[in-house]
Model the fold of this input.
Amino acid sequence: MAELTVRQVMTPDPVTVTPETPVGRAAALMLERRINGLPVVDGAGTLVGIICQSDLIAEQKKLPLPSFFTLLDGYIPLTSLKHLEREVERIAAVNVGQAMSRQPVTVGPDTPLSQAAALMVDHNFHTLPVLDQGRLVGVVGKEDLLRSLFTDQG
Done:
């Protein structure tokens, strides 16, 4: 028997948001639809990111203060300023573009389900956008994988 592919379990035509969507609206959509993540598309429909519940929760955490050490009466930060700036931007996010994860990992419709599952487990992803020739055609989530496991075993 051939291995299942992403196409067989994905949710086609997923709900999407744009970078300009308010984070509150994105959160409401996730809660209403009982989904963990939303693909973020630009005006042309091109995938530009993904926003997940964990991105929205990051807004609520306290800003990690960088560690410093002193050298010749000067303070030297031990963390990257770029990283710190990104964290500040995510915590203060007003719209999806500020809170989303850019350049999301994607799969194709013909990707074996085992490969998608490995990506999710190895990188702690809950939602993977599905691209076909660069066009967003669906999403596959952990719930889709779980459902396919129990459907197969009848």
In short: The first helix runs from residue 6 to 9.
